Amino acid sequence: MAEPVNNDTAPGTAAPPAATPGPAAAPAKAQISPTPLPRKAKHDRPPEEDPGIWRMNRRNVLSVAGWLSFFGFILTSTIGALRFMFPRVLFEPPTKFKAGFPADFVVDEVSEKYKDEKRVWIVREKEGFYALISICTHLGCTPRWLGSDNKFKCPCHGSGFYKTGINFEGPAPRPLERAQITFSDDGQIEIDRSIKLIYEKGDWTKSGAFLPYQG
Amino acid sequence: MLEALKKTEVYKSIFRHSYQDTQRNRALQIVDNVFLHLHPVRVPRHATNIGYTWGMGGITFLLFIVLTITGIILMFYYRPTAQYAYEDMKYLMNDVPFGPLIRNMHRWGAHAMVLTVMLHMFRVFLTGSYKPPRQFNWVVGVLLLVLTLLLSFSGYLLPWDQLAIWAVTVGTNMARATPLLGHEGPFGPQLGMMPDNDVRFVLLGGTEVGPPTLLRFYVGHCIFLPIIAAIFMAVHFWRVRKDGGISGPETPTKN
What we know:
The structure holds 2 protein chains of 2 kinds. Chain A is of the alpha+beta class. Chain A is built from 3 helices and 11 strands. Mean pLDDT of chain A is 80; it is low at 1-30. The termini of chain B are far apart. The chains are: A alpha+beta, B mainly alpha.
């Protein structure tokens, strides 16, 4: 212990060490406590700029290596445990499905063929197709397609949507969402419900919101 | 005979001191008992005034113990898989001896615990017991409130009926909008969050509420959350002692 000793000497001794320059306060302090206090902390201040266990030298190298491997182990185990919570395989129904060939759909009609199973309408226009998700944007009921009125009508609270999916009556705050619609390799229409195209975000102009007719 | 027993080494090793009604012995009774050592040796007179504290913190702790015991008992019959969970709940409610009693204790105790936690918080607020030096314990208490709500929410899914599934569907849909970590939250999509890699996915173990969700909520409900809550409760009670004991009306003689 060759550190500079500050507090080892009791304050009661008449001559304080020269390390404490106190011109006015020092004599008064000495009079207030004439007897040395028994409980005086000795080394409660660490040496300045002491790297602690990270002090690298010959005697410490194994200690530092030990701590490094300890923290390395903790860190990699944490990363592993976090990754563990993200499974690679999901046992869920597929979000993509093939909806048949383009020629199966009649121009200007709304197909409710996949409404019960997949909750999707496929609308055929002269230029092509789009897929609307049959979930009311109000509270999530399933609207119905009323061909005679040329609109989607929600039975729960009366929200109405045009054939394009734009809301025009009732409490629904925004248009119906579209699902991504593409051609699969074998020429069938393929719909991916997990990719939603939202009107307010400008998604309906993107490819996948509308499928031009082919074949 | 009894005196002879009290002189044996076995007796003396278990009970360190006699049961004489002296100040010293009464203090030792508390200090030397692992179950009571969190309890203060001396109870101030005002602490027995139920009108001041309402005893809500203590009742909450009692309910936590009741819920732990009844929960462990329920684990003997409940299997956390989609195939069995609902049937086991029905079995508990209809055919297991005392099953309805245990499950209802667990269910109603859980509801009551949420209420008593809130009332406890309300009392602490009204009496100003969150003020220095008790600020940190208020923060610990808020964490315990969150843990209580999470325990309540995760337990809600376990009956695996329609109510449970849809309640948790709605509840976890909120996690979609988590900033940074949710795929519909602010800056979530920019950070590459998708339905199959965001924070909701971790909670559910999938992209929708399903069998993996039941298992995750079960483990969280029975192991993870109670342990975290117990640790914070220990800190909470310890800080009550360290911050000057149970709060009471301001008196000129104390402090």
